[in-house]
Structures are given as structure tokens and as C-alpha cells.
Write a structure and sequence with these properties.
Blueprint (H helix, E strand, L loop, with lengths): L10 H14 L7 H20 L3 H21 L4 H25 L9 H13 L3
């Protein structure tokens, strides 16, 4: 069932394709609440591994959280890969605004506080960036 999913796909897109193929043979939740409960469960398991300072467990559980979120996106009709690209682009525009505003004021980002940078971030959001 899963053999046709190319390994070379970006991870989020590959995850969504794997989930779609599994769903096509009935391996899927029918109630979105169950999908979101799985996301919550995986986040809880991630927190346990983080608290235990288990690096391997933390890496594994991060993967499980990401996989569960991709599945939730699929159930919500969202292509996770596209959503992530959109968020990356938004982050970059807003961060570039922070850089530009710092330059305008003769400031080096490394010398600015998080609160100062966050104020410029919110300014960027207010400008629709």
C-alpha cells in the first residue's frame, strides 16, 4: 500500500501521502476529535521524554507529534507542506522587518532584547507582513 510513496518527498508531504494511502484502505479515524486527541496524546508523550532528558525519546516523540499534526492537517483539508511553507515565508518577512527597523535605528540585532525585537515583530504583523 505504501510502496508508491517516494522517499525523496519533503517530510511533511511524504507523511501526508503515507497517511492518505493508509486511509484509502480504512486505516484512519472517522471523527476529527479522535485525530486531535492523538495530537494531544503525542504532545504529552513528548513532554515526558523532555522532562526525562532522554534525547532519543525526545527526537522520536517530536517525530510522532509532527506526524500527528500532519494527519490533523489532512483531516482539516490542509496540505501541511503548503501550510509550513506559508508560515516560513511569513516568519522571514517579519524577521526581515525586524532587521530593517534595527538598521534604521543603528542597532545590531545581537544587542537588542527579545522585547525590542518582539515590538518590531508586532509592528510587522500590524502592517500585514
Amino acid at each position: 500500500v505504501l510502496d508508491g510513496v517516494p522517499r525523496a518527498l519533503p517530510a511533511a508531504l511524504r507523511a501526508q501521502r503515507v497517511q492518505e494511502k493508509a486511509a484509502n484502505v480504512g486505516f484512519d479515524w472517522h471523527d476529527r476529535r479522535d485525530v486531535w486527541a492523538k495530537v494531544d496524546e503525542e504532545i504529552g508523550e513528548l513532554r515526558v521524554e523532555i522532562d526525562a532528558q532522554d534525547a532519543d525519546g525526545t527526537r522520536r516523540e517530536f517525530g510522532d507529534v509532527l506526524f500527528a499534526l500532519v494527519n490533523a492537517a489532512r483531516h482539516e483539508g490542509v496540505i501541511a507542506e503548503d501550510a509550513l511553507h506559508g508560515t516560513i515565508n511569513t516568519f522571514m518577512r517579519r524577521f526581515q522587518h525586524i532587521e530593517a527597523r534595527a538598521l534604521e535605528n543603528g542597532r545590531d540585532l545581537r544587542d537588542m532584547s527579545l522585547a525590542e525585537m518582539d515590538a518590531y515583530w508586532n509592528e510587522a504583523k500590524g502592517h500585514g507582513l
